[in-house]
Amino acid sequence: MTIFQAIVVGIVQGLTEFLPVSSSGHIELSKAILGVHLEDNLEFSIAVHVATVLSTLLVFRKEIVELIAGLFRFENNQQTQYVFKLLVSAIPVGVVGVLFKDEIESLFEGNLIVVGVMLLVTSALLALTRLIKRPIAKPITYIDSIIIGISQTFAILPGLSRSGATISTGLLLGKDRDETARFSFLMVIIPVLGAAFIDIVKGDAVNVLTAPLIAGFIAAFVSGFLACSFMLRIVRKGNLYWFAIYCALVGVIALIFA
What we know:
The protein is 76% helix and 0% strand. It is mainly alpha-helical.
């Protein structure tokens, strides 16, 4: 992988991790266009994913400090409950990731048909948030955490947007827009860091710093920070239907060139 290719893939990862257009789907499209094979470069994949997590930590730094402070009071307070809800939301994707790791990885082999179909599903989910009105915004419960976590699990499929699925699910459950977006972005921290930790402990990833890896990391971090900040404003305004149109168009293109 060249430095240019690494920067492009890093930008795509950072932007599409938070924009509801499917990072996995766009990464597959990028691989097809650029002719790169991330399956043989696990270290790079881990680097760009960790970079987007770090950008999330930066955007929500105040909230995270409050959550940590509340958690270490060792009380059943609001912050402690919120942290446990985030942990609960990670259970479905953790179970599926451990039990079906090989089957999941087999989907990421340039299968543009899967990408195209799942992008159309993402489009439909985003469109539903505009068609279905929920007048009363309710706080996120433990049951909601499981449901949103299940939607995140389905988003393992390339082309099905993680942020699109989780935010749409939260809104369709009648949750507050700001709270739904915050929960959606914070809940990704646990599974991404957990998966990276497992790969490193198992020795699947080698601790090698290269120029493309560093370039991709920086590109993913900067673009992720900008995308996360931008997406928070978009969710507040309820303009997700523009992304629904985009996903539908890209989905059709992916199916045409599959």
